[in-house]
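Shipment paperwork, digital attachment
Item: protein structure file
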Amino acid sequence: MIARISGTLICKNVTHVVVDAHGIGYRVFVPLTTFYELPDVGQHVNLNIHTHVKQDSINLFGFYTNEERDVFQLMISVTGIGPKLALNILSGISARELIRAVSHGNLSRLVNIPGVGKKMAQRLVIELRDKVMKLTSDEVVGEPGGKMTADELMKEDVMSALINLGYKSHNVRDILDRVFNESKEVLTLDVLLKKTLKILAG
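Attachment content:
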């Protein structure tokens, strides 16, 4: 099974990429969260791979982080969720935010993901809650007991929104921390989003 691909990015689409590794071009399906982290075509790229084998085909699914791949693999173990739906879910929510939503039983957040209805959200919580707790850290799920501060929750909301707009997660996180450290006023979600966007726009 292929677990990782390193090579030159030769094709980049919102649903899949092609990576040239030692003269072989691998087509790899990716979620939007990974797509937004990819370098430009012609640059070197590393992808963590899940190899999905069916009777009549073999498909590769690639992820920017191991965490994304782990969450993807957990999701396809859920009744009624195949690789394409799992990829679609990860295109609408970051792996960390999904872990938190499942850990906390946050159905309202889950049903906001495209393709996830109430029954599917309930199934995700029922079937994955114990499993995601095994791969989480306090940094991912929040403070012990599952509590996060209001500021942490606000940062994550803004982070998710900006990643969905196409910004890279490491850039957004650095700027969010900077805005919080430099701000002399009480920050609301709207204010934080506007200040962060202003800096990103440069």
